[in-house]
Amino acid sequence: MAALGWLTPRRRSATARSVLAGEASAEAARKSSQEAQETQETEVPPSPVKEAEFPVHGDDRAAAFFDLDNTVMQGAALFHFGRGLYKRKFFDTRELAKFAWQQAWFRLAGVEDPEHMQDARDSALSIVKGHRVSELKSIGEEIYDEYMAERIWPGTRALAQAHLDAGQKVWLVTAAPVEIAQVIARRLGLTGALGTVAESVAGVYTGRLVGEPLHGPAKAEAVRALAAAEDLDLSRCAAYSDSHNDIPMLSLVGHPYAINPDAKLRRHARQMDWRLRDYRTGRKAAKVGIPAAAGVGAVAGGTAAAIALHRRRR
Fold first, then answer.
1. For the chain, which terminus, N or C, has the lower number of CB atoms within 10 Å?
2. Does the keyword Isomerase apply (predicted)?
3. Contact call for residues 261 and 279 (beta carbons, < 8 A)
4. Peptide bond into 248 cis (omega under 30)
């Protein structure tokens, strides 16, 4: 306080108090700053909330159901199959042009049109009539290598593999002939496939279907029937599709995914807070949600397809 010697005692006292207050304030500020810094350095930041692991490893009452056309594979399996049959002289150029137009429309629109798909199935049934089932299975193996293998979406394939790695079964669910669907499932290392069942007598195709094509609500009924046969809990299962036609199947499970979705499915998925994946352009959006199960009408054809496949497996 020597520097304050020129002040009167009263003024010296007031000034000293001010200096003391300033020093105390500065010290308090410095100390507070130091404590805050030490707290930031030693305090462990809270861990971010993690999404529950999915698929759940070892959950044998869960399974995954994948639509095929434009979900697992670019384009429609039935059209690729038609190309392979034409190459093997199963039908003429006029019918090939019809297949080509249907495939071009499908790829441009990116959605399933019931009239186009029904027309293609009718054409395919007339073409295979009188041929042996074993012959078509053998040809299906060749057609997969020629036209389908290079059209598998890697992103969707990885999703299927995640379920397999978790110890779960993975099924294709498609309107394509069940024999072709089974070839694709086996080549991808999946459990099996639900598909449209064409009638055969003594191993020869009759040109008729067993029930109806596995399309729309029929897929949901096939999944429901298979889940009952396999003792699956659908609330723990997942389903994947690109088409709004498969909303009944997607609504049936606890974990629905919209993959490469058409416009109607994209809107519905956002409304329902379903997960979205788009592998066509590299965009990927994820939304987590558990939808309420939606009731669907009973479709004999879908149930028949599921039961027929289950009996074959047994």
1. C
2. no
3. no
4. no
Question: What's the one-letter identity of residue 295?
Answer: G
**Among all chains, which residue has been given the structure tokens 């096939």?**
222
What's the N-to-C CA distance of the chain in angstroms?
A: 101
Say whether 231 is catalytic: no
Catalytic residue among 60, 67, 246, 273: 67
Nearest to 255 by CA among 231, 228, 270, 274: 274
Sign of the four-CA dihedral 88, 126, 110, 223? negative
pLDDT digits (tens, 9 = 90+) for 179-202: 999 999 999 999 999 998 888 999
43 HSE (CA, 13 A, CB side)? 8
Neighbouring CB atoms inside 10 A of 146's CB total 13
Q: How far apart are CA 227 and CA 122, in angstroms?
A: 29
Pairing of β 238-241 and β 255-259: parallel
pTM: 0.68
Helix (H, G, I), strand (E, B) or coil at 199: strand
Instruction: Specify the 3-state DSSP secondary structure of 194.
Output: strand
Indicate if 242 belongs to the active site.
no
Q: CA dist 169 to 29, 183, 230, 238, 293, Å?
A: 64, 16, 10, 11, 21
Residues in the chain, total: 314
Tokens representing 80 are: 């690729």
Catalytic option among 59, 69, 262, 278:
69
